[in-house]
Write a structure and sequence with these properties.
With about 100 residues, the chain is mostly helical. The chain has 5 helices and 3 strands; from the N terminus they run αβααββαα.
Length: about 100
């Protein structure tokens, strides 16, 4: 299982326990999303992606990562529906 697969299902990559990981570093989140660590940090600093600090370390809670992804999916669906007049969102394909 890759980090990307485990990150989105609360997996256990990098741990010896069967307890799902709840917190991920900005680097791990960047790899899971396929973006740069700088981009993830910009999302955190802008407030688009919530994070917490554990000591001196910044960590992103898996639930907040899911919330960010869900929000982006809603925005994308809305944008697609407005561009296609709602046809694609209803029928699942683009109008020609």
């Amino acid at each position: 299982m890759t980090l990307a697969e485990s990150a989105f299902d609360g997996g256990t990559v990098g741990t010896t326990s069967t307890t799902p990981r709840l917190l991920f570093s900005t680097q791990e989140v960047a790899r899971a999303l396929g973006v740069s660590e700088r981009h993830v940090k910009n999302l955190v600093y802008s407030g688009a992606l919530l994070s917490i600090t554990v000591g001196r370390l910044r960590r992103i809670y898996i639930g907040d990562l899911h919330a960010y992804i869900d929000e982006r999916r809603e925005v994308a669906a809305h944008d697609t529906a407005s561009r296609t007049g709602g046809h694609e969102a209803v029928c699942g394909r683009r109008s020609r």
